[in-house]
Amino acid sequence: ISRKSSSKFRGPDVNPREAAAQLGVRAVVTGSISRVGDQIAVRVDVVDASEDRQLSGGRFQRPVTDLVRIPDDIANTAVERLKLELSPDQTRRLAKRTTENSESFQYYLNGRVALDGGEDGRDNARLSFEKAIELDPNESVYYHNFGTTVYLFRRDVEAHYHINEQQVFDK
User: Fold this and answer.
1) Among positive and negative, which fits the CA dihedral 3, 115, 31, 11?
2) Mean pLDDT, to the nearest integer, of 22-47?
3) In the chain, is it the N or the C terminus that has fewer CB atoms within a 10 Å radius of its CB?
4) pLDDT tens digits for 58-100?
5) Using CA of residue 79, residue 40, residue 62, residue 123, what is the dihedral sign?
6) 30-39 — which CB contacts under 8 Å span 24+ positions?
7) In this structure, are strands 39-48 and 27-36 parallel, antiparallel, or unpaired?
8) pLDDT at 83
9) Would you tell me how many other CB atoms lie within 10 Å of the CB of residue 84?
10) pLDDT value of residue 136
């Protein structure tokens, strides 16, 4: 399910059963993120919407400097608790980390959130992706998101931004 399809189900008043029906899925993931000082806490629940019961869930907390590990924690816990049997390809993809640089990953996540802000968020998204690229220039997903942001908002890459078109397409 695409991010765009599921993003309309944000907020505290979302009914998991109705969301699942509209998305055509049996289970949904609900959660929240909070930050207190230098700690990030993520609460995640996998809910069987047809039976209105929790399949899995947990609270994951790490220092902001270790932010890149939280998605791994969540994915590995889900696989373990749901007793999923993964193919070798799925196991390889699950083990692949986007980056080791927590600061660049935080800018990337900020950019993703800013994109949901529509036209008002585009400049913040672009700046966040640029900063992520500056901090970790070898991470192709940052270039992908930067390029997508520029494409979606019909911007001229070379004329307006510090990253030239060749850099975007070489990654």
Assistant:
1) negative
2) 88
3) N
4) 899 989 888 888 888 888 888 888 888 889 998 888 877 778 8
5) positive
6) 35/64, 38/63, 38/64, 38/65, 39/63, 39/64
7) antiparallel
8) 85
9) 11
10) 94
- Residues whose CB is less than 8 angstroms from the CB of residue 89 and which lie 6 or more positions away in sequence, other chains included: none
Q: Per the structure block, which two tokens stand in for 11?
A: 């907020």
How far apart, in whole angstroms, are the C-alpha atoms of residue 38 and residue 63? Answer: 6
Residues 6+ apart with CB under 8 A from 121: 113, 114, 115
The two structure tokens encoding residue 34: 């909070």
- List Cβ neighbours of 168 (8 Å cut-off, separation of 6 or more): 143, 146, 147, 150, 157
* pLDDT in the model for residue 162: 58
Query: What pTM does this model have?
Result: 0.64
The amino acid present at 120, given as its one-letter code, is D
